[in-house]
Amino acid sequence: MLAAHLAGAGLTGTWRCLTGEAGLFRLYERNIVDADVLTEGLGEVWHTMRLSMKPYPCCRCNHTLIEMALALHAEGLAPDDIAPGERAPQGLAVGQEIVEDGVDRGAGVAVLAQRERERDRAAV
Questions:
Q1: 3-class DSSP assignment, residue 81
Q2: DSSP state, residue 96
Q3: Per-chain mean pLDDT for the chain
Q4: Distance separating alpha carbons of residues 20 and 15, to the nearest angstrom
Q5: What pLDDT is attached to residue 91?
Q6: pLDDT at 75
Q7: Which of these, 62, 46, 42, lies nearest to 54 by C-alpha position?
Q8: pLDDT tens digits for 46-94?
Q9: Which of 115, 100, 107 is nearest to 26 (CA)?
Q10: 60: which residues sit within 8 A by CB, 6+ positions away?
Q11: Which residue in 123, 118, 114, 116 sits closest to 20, CA to CA?
Q12: Which GO MF term does the entry hold, naming one (predicted)?
């Protein structure tokens, strides 16, 4: 329903969701991605057997922790048995931003993508 209402209000789909200013490569890969690799061997090389199912509806980096928590729970560990605390991933400080500098954090990614699409259309 939300998607229908947004479309009715004029919001279109993402534009350059991988390579744009609000795209995956800039936001999460620091723009150091060879995008040509994505189409290399397209229609000739199939990677279907190299894919895996995503068992949990979250970022895959959380799956190991989920599996660990389920295993500990199965062994009888209860939430009250765990002391509170924070642990940052190796190489990061707790609370450190991992999104590229210069990104307007006040706007959602969909809004940034929409703005970029409008700029691209104006440039044509």
A1: helix
A2: -
A3: 77
A4: 7
A5: 61
A6: 94
A7: 62
A8: 888 888 788 899 888 888 888 988 999 999 998 888 887 766 666 655 5
A9: 100
A10: 54
A11: 116
A12: lyase activity
The answer on pLDDT for 38 being more than 70 is yes
Structure tokens at 77: 């560990």
Using CA atoms, how far apart are residues 112 and 37, in angstroms rounded to an integer?
Answer: 25
Torsion sign over Cα 64, 70, 75, 79: positive
Q: Retrieve residue 104's tokens.
A: 């307007």
Helix (H, G, I), strand (E, B) or coil at 66: helix
- The pLDDT score that the predictor gives to residue 87 is 64
Residue 102 near residue 4 (C-beta atoms within 8 A): no
Tokens standing for residue 65: 């922790």
What is the predicted pLDDT for the residue at 71? 92
Contact present, 27 and 101 (Cβ < 8 Å): no
The 8-class DSSP code of residue 16 comes to: S
